[in-house]
Amino acid sequence: MIIIASDHGGLELKETVKQALQDRGVEVRDLGTMNSDSVDYPDFGAKVAGALARGEADRGILICGTGIGMSIVANKFPGVRAALISDEFTAQMSKEHNNANVIVMGGRVLNSEQACRMVNVWLDTSFEGGRHQKRLDKIAQIEENVRAGRV
Asked: Which residues are catalytic?
């Protein structure tokens, strides 16, 4: 299952990506927003990242106007590795090297065809592990140090 959310700036793209995921047979849980009324992206970024941090899902997709704000919010949560992707290469590398469990996109930056291709690349790419796992372990240690007040 993939959890997805957007603010008003990403609503249209979220709906397109959600439909493409469902067409692919992926179960999707939509945490909003559900209309074009202005909302605050931190609220929706926190919903998805919080659900992942609690183990309610393994993957998430966030969309706001540029993707920048949602990326900042999502990466505040332990265990969340949110990657702002801009093309198929960054989608691939986000999974292959960083094992991103959240991808973030800009609804005012990408068109629907680009976004759907990028999501497919992310889903179809495997994490390489090896030297990359060592780096993810370091990130996890940093998170632990922050929680324990050692940083």
From this structure: 64, 97
